[in-house]
Amino acid sequence: MASPDKMISVSASTSAASPALTNHSTAPSLGEKTTTIRFVNTKAFWDLINSTDQETLEFYNVSSQDFIRLEQERELRRRGIRFRRYKAEERILIILIPGMPHEQLHLKLYHEARDEIVFMGLRDAWTDCGATTFPGRPGGSSGEGDSSGCPDPQPDGRSWPTLVIEAGDSSSLQKLWQDMRWWFSASDHQVQIVLLAKLDRPGRRIILEKWVETTPPPCPGPITRAAALRQPNCVQNIVIDWTNGTAAEIPASHIVTRGDLRLEFQLLFSRPPINPGEGDILITTPRLQVWASKVWRAVFEL
Prior knowledge:
The protein is α+β, with helices and mostly antiparallel strands. The chain folds into two domains: 4-96, no CATH class; 100-300, tt1808, chain A. The chain is 27% helix and 28% strand. The chain has seven helices and 16 strands. The protein has helices spanning 42-51, 64-77, 100-119, 173-186, 225-228, 265-269, 285-300, and strands at residues 8-11, 34-38, 56-60, 82-87, 92-96, 126-128, 133-135, 142-144, 147-151, 163-168, 193-200, 205-214, 231-242, 254-257, 261-263, 281-283. The longest helix has 20 residues, at 100-119. The protein is globular and about 55 Å long.
């Protein structure tokens, strides 16, 4: 039986460039080193999971039957790992073993949004989906977000969250862009808002992007089918810088550029705001500063 050490081959190249996106982030490329691991069997898989100090691992040669067995084993072991993405056609499984900074990146941000929903009196009209596994096309891919939620009840025929948050500590922005595109496509456009939160430790900042889908304006000449397709559009790009020489746990130490974060009620609830108190959710600059301070505190408490 092959040992976990013999399973690993490492590629130190940075992530590939993002595919064409509408109004993508102007932030510099934040690359990552990718560890590629050949899947051998479930025992070697779990031996490696239990011994690694890495947050993200990518396995290849994972068949659909292997993936089903790993899901069953995960339930039995009650391990807090996420099968972030399974690509059946490519036989690739991306594993996330989240640390506290990663969890703070998405959980605190999601709680900010949910608190506003509760404040509007809509506690029972919203369901937290957490890191639920959502299948793509039959026989295709599946994915688990970091945090997600949807209206309750959902409109007829819908089963995907309207809001998804993906966090990146070890993951690069390029990988997060890939995740964002998958959510829109795999859900058949039921996902309405994808928030990407990237922790840039060397740059002492957090990058927060809000993505929605829009239909591009028609171009002169015949309208093609491709031109009519909805495209991901980064409609907010917020950068939160931690000021040099200040304490990370103090919210005022974090300078927010291009805040506040707005989440449209119509996109979240699949209906317009009609009752008193209902409206778009606004996560203000002071709340974003508190969020950033919580994330950096988690970094230094490791």
